[in-house]
Write a structure and sequence with these properties.
The structure is a homodimer. Chain A is an alpha+beta fold. Chain A contains 5 helices and 10 strands. In chain A, strands 2-5-6-1-7-10-9-8-3-4 form a 10-stranded mixed sheet. The model of chain A has no long low-confidence stretch (mean pLDDT about 95).
């Protein structure tokens, strides 16, 4: 039996929200921590975002909470088409994806596409890159692969 | 700043599914592990399930996968009213709750109810008890509190 990702360690649980300032304040209050700084994902020039195979100018605001060994991530999508906005429109606010840190992202994406789990969206972030895979049919949640450059 | 739960360690991420045999097989195949045994929650005589303050005969089938420091839990609700069935009917399959192991479950439930996060459902399981709290308005996901008896 093979583990396609080479890991089963969940690195992030991500929740799509409509108002990241309000929801991150609610998390901060509930867990007794400082409200984290909300950051924008990069624009197309840096992130080179592709959504369904086409360049996309979609961006999102993000906030991260350290929760034990993983991060809880809040994501507020902008108005452009993205996997984040799709989720909000189809399901409303809630948990959209589970993220795993992998080695060899490109090969893992190919391997998953061969098992009918297509790439939905990809892009670069400072220090690495991500790929959202459409695993909803089989796994009932989107999986995100993260590849960090060696530092 | 106070952490009401006394912890920020996510113990379980739970996904509501329609066909637990099929989805647990898909997870087993994807992560290269044996399909775990699917178990039924106890009936009312043992579980003393209460849903919205009333005794309930609702049960569910559960399957657990160890994913790093936490468990991924699959839940297939039966046909009786429960927070599990509510989620399936309102949202379809997907991530329904995040679980935290707490000390002093009863006091934590009271404290959360005082901050407008009402108890939705509670019950006993072998070795402990659980409480689902309606945190959706503020936190966009249900939280489950778990209290395990000292062994």
């Amino acid at each position: 039996m093979k583990n396609i990702l080479g890991t089963n360690v969940i690195a992030q649980v991500a929740i799509i929200v409509e108002d990241i300032e309000k929801t991150s304040q609610a998390y901060a209050d509930f867990f007794g921590v400082e409200k984290p700084k909300v950051v924008w994902t990069d624009g197309y020039d840096k992130a080179q975002t592709e959504y369904k195979g086409e360049p996309s100018q979609a961006r999102a605001q993000l906030a991260f909470f350290d929760m034990g060994s993983l991060q809880l991530e809040l994501i507020q999508p902008d108005e452009f088409p993205s996997t984040w906005r799709d989720f909000l429109e189809e399901h409303g606010e809630g948990v959209q994806h589970l993220a795993f840190v992998v080695d060899g992202l490109k090969e893992k994406v190919s391997e998953m596409e061969n098992t009918e789990m297509p790439l939905i969206q990809k892009g670069e972030y400072p220090g690495g890159r991500y790929a959202y895979m459409d695993t909803v049919k089989d796994l009932k949640v989107v999986l995100e692969l993260l590849e960090n450059d060696e530092s």
